[in-house]
Specification:
alpha+beta; 7-stranded mixed sheet; 7 strands
Length: 189
């Protein structure tokens, strides 16, 4: 198996997600405590549906999926760069820490830093962005702490669980990353 992409001092790494990760994904995919912030996960997802989603995403030219792993290679969650729009070189970041041992310890922040490094250093993107429920204080804190710039408050953007929800969008440009990389510990090698 491929060595995870990480940086010195990080407790997590990223490796390409594979169909072999399906069992680990199925442990959290239907847990509302984990997926409550994902509007597209309103109903129960079967193993077959998730396998089909993974295969479609693996074949996509506009998505890159990674497994977030601990120092021993243990699966913690998924991270992705989605909806890559190659002409403008931008993409949407996504992160879910499915394993309970991966939540609430700052590991998600490390995973997002690594995801940004992959986006800018490997894929050559110019901009990454993320969007979250306006009520998701944890993600707002992480985005602000990582110096993402607020780009807009989207009113009634998603319909989920019988109600409309406002969303907040943040962005990070390539030059922002280059300035932050030494502080983040994601220095070019």
């Amino acid at each position: 198996m491929m060595e995870p992409f990480t940086f010195p001092g990080f407790d997590v790494g990223l490796r390409p997600l594979t169909s072999g990760d399906l069992d680990a994904i199925m442990e959290w995919i239907n847990d509302p405590e984990v997926t409550r912030n994902f509007a597209g996960m309103a109903g129960e997802i079967t193993r077959e549906q998730e396998a089909a989603f993974l295969e479609a995403t693996f074949a996509s030219d506009t998505d890159r999926l990674f497994a977030v792993v601990d120092r021993d290679g243990g699966y913690l969650g998924n991270a992705g760069i989605h909806k890559i729009y190659w002409p403008a070189k931008n993409g949407r970041l996504g992160l879910v820490m499915g394993a309970a041992r991966g939540r609430g310890r700052g590991l998600g922040q490390q995973a997002l830093k690594l995801l940004c490094a992959r986006a800018f250093l490997e894929l050559g993107l110019h901009k990454v962005w993320l969007v979250h429920y306006a009520t998701n204080a944890r993600m707002a804190h992480i985005a602000t702490k990582l110096c993402f710039v607020p780009e807009g408050h989207l009113r009634d953007e998603y319909f989920h669980a019988g109600a409309y929800h406002d969303m907040v969008r943040y962005g990070l440009l390539e030059q922002d990353f280059e300035a932050l990389a030494p502080v983040w510990g994601t220095i070019r090698t």
